[in-house]
Amino acid sequence: MVDCAAMTENSARRPNSALWLGLLLAVLGVLSNGLTFLGFPASIVPWISLVLPVVGLAFVLLGLWRAFAQPTAYKGKIAGTIVAILSLVFLTAAVAYFWGARKLPHSAGAPAVGQRVPDFTLPDSSGQPVSLSQLFAAPPGGVAPKAILLVFYRGYW
Q1: What would the pLDDT profile of 33-44 be if each residue is shown by its tens digit?
Q2: For a disulfide at 66, which of 74, 84, 112, 121, Cβ 3.0-4.6 Å?
Q3: Whole-angstrom Cα distance, residue 125 to residue 154?
Q4: Cα 40 to the chain's mean position, in Å?
Q5: Domain residues for 13?
Q6: Which residues contact 7 (CB under 8 A, 6 or more apart)?
Q7: Could you tell me if residue 50 is inside a domain?
Q8: In the chain, where does DSSP find H-type helix?
Q9: Does residue 23 contact residue 63 with C-beta atoms inside 8 Å?
Q10: CA 126 to CA 99: how far, in whole Å?
Q11: Contact, 20 vs 60, CB < 8 A?
């Protein structure tokens, strides 16, 4: 025999949308690391990828509280626990990326500020080789430059 009161109680429970919104925000936080490839400034991306999982975890915790504090009104005790663990994993990954992206490796061979750069030769935009000593050389009847600004552009001309 089917208990009609239990059926109406289960059907009256609402889906816990805070859980799924929180998981979506946590996943978007991890996926936001690819925003630099779409042209977003690289200095903003680690912050976005950190803030979205934090907000997502807050929504998941709200949904988890709803599921356990009001079990007759909201679904999601088991799913909420699984989603909370997943969101915590995504947040941990975002924090690890945030701290890792801000640390630049130390280079023992890099010149220090104010130190003279060793001479090197690279092709210019037309493919002709240009050395650093050529750039520091004085033009005929002119004065040699005191400094040169080097811009290393990682891209295509």
Answers
A1: 788 778 778 778
A2: 74
A3: 13
A4: 11
A5: 4-101
A6: none
A7: yes
A8: 4-12, 17-31, 45-69, 77-101, 132-136
A9: no
A10: 40
A11: no
Asked if residue 143 belongs to a domain, the reply is no
Tokens matching residue 119: 């001479």
* Pairing state between β 129-131 and 121-123: antiparallel
User: Which residue shows structure tokens 């679904």?
Assistant: 75
Tell me the per-residue pLDDT of 66-93, one tens digit each, with 9 for 90 and over.
888 888 888 888 888 888 898 888 888 8
Measured distance CA(87)–CA(20) in Å, rounded: 10
39 token code pair: 């042209």
**Considering the domain boundaries, does residue 117 fall inside one?**
no
Q: Domains in the chain: how many in total?
A: 1
The structure tokens listed for 81 are 């626990």
Dihedral angle, C-alpha 119, 125, 127, 131, nearest 10 °: -10
User: Sign (positive/negative) of CA torsion 90, 60, 45, 100?
Assistant: negative
* Residue listed under structure tokens 């999982």: 53
Domain contains 115 = no
Residues 67, 16: Cα–Cα separation, whole Å: 7
Nearest to 87 by CA among 6, 155, 151, 27: 27
**What are the structure tokens assigned to 114, written together?**
């104010």
